[in-house]
Amino acid sequence: MAIRKVPILPYRRGSDASEADFFDIPDEPCWAIIKRQLRHLRTWVVFIFFVLFILFLRREKPPPPKVTHIDYSKVDWTRYAYSQYATSSPYLCNALLTFDALERLGSKAQRVLFYPENWDVVVESDRDRDSQMLALAHEKYRALLVPIDVQMVKAGDGPSESWDKSTSKFLAFGETEFDRVIHIDSDATILQNMDELFFLPPAQVAMPRAYWQLPDTRQLSSLLIVLEPSFKEYYALTAAGEAVTYGQVNSTGATTGARYDMELMNERYGDSALVLPHRQYGLITGEFRRDDHRAFLGNEWEAWDPERVLSEAKLVHFSDWPLPKPWIMWPQELLADMLPKCKVKPGTLQESGCKDREIWKKLYDDYRRRRRNVCKLLSYPAPNWPPREGPEQPLSQDQESQPLS
Question: Where exactly are the transmembrane stretches of this chain (predicted)?
């Protein structure tokens, strides 16, 4: 019987080794392996899907959708309005910026502008800035112009105008042709459409909390008021405003400290107003300069994220006293102390974590840019710092109304 030969196993392609190293990694350069794998279609498909996934994560988030239970196309927008008042040139421009933001964000509601009755819309020269801005409010932003008698409030003009004129916002309660009116302080900037506030549950007023006073004081802030017009409320508030203007007296006849619109509103509606969430409707710029954000966040455990906070906010109020308002340039000596600090190694070349500072400066820069573009006005020069011993005289209206060259 013939002896059967045992077959010899073949060598593996590309290798001089025998079956002893059959499962070894082939002696082949890594780049050659990569090139060979890239020839396969499935590799490219996986790579493309990976790139698309990264781009999806980095995409810009769309604005929040409108309230879904309201059919905005069927709303009679002639029944709703935003109101502004202007008793000086700076505040007239601020009102225009508010109307411009509402127009840009697609608000359908009406706009109402209260202004001194001694102003007019007849543009007599290219330096007649007040008349130009009034005409712009009416023609471009379709604002209803309502002349008012400003004798009810104390005199004042220019960048140092006091809060005494803030009681003019009570005039919005007299606009009874509207079902609801939203009054916004003009030293604020609108970031998102707020038309959903017109459809809140019935309430005489709705206001955000003055959260920066918590926990010591629980008070409503008048920087945003959603109100139901009423002649009864109008007469009651204006009467209280006149008492403040002429002598600062309270209901008992005793002389008090200064009380303005915020105090008067809290006296009347502090226990009955609908409270709006301040994260969306009451954020102040000074929050980006704070180290302790518990009052804003409302808890002890949530982490402060300035980018998320800004993305949620629909309204930001400029409040960084003693820094002046955004239409006045900053005193450099004061700015150095007030500027938001970076989180890591502040004041050094290696500083980082400066997102609060970037957002804070962007809010001011954007406001000043829009002021130049919409009103064609430059900012007031920075006041002296430290202040002089005597009170400074405000700039004249002619200085404020000087157009850009």
Answer: 41-57
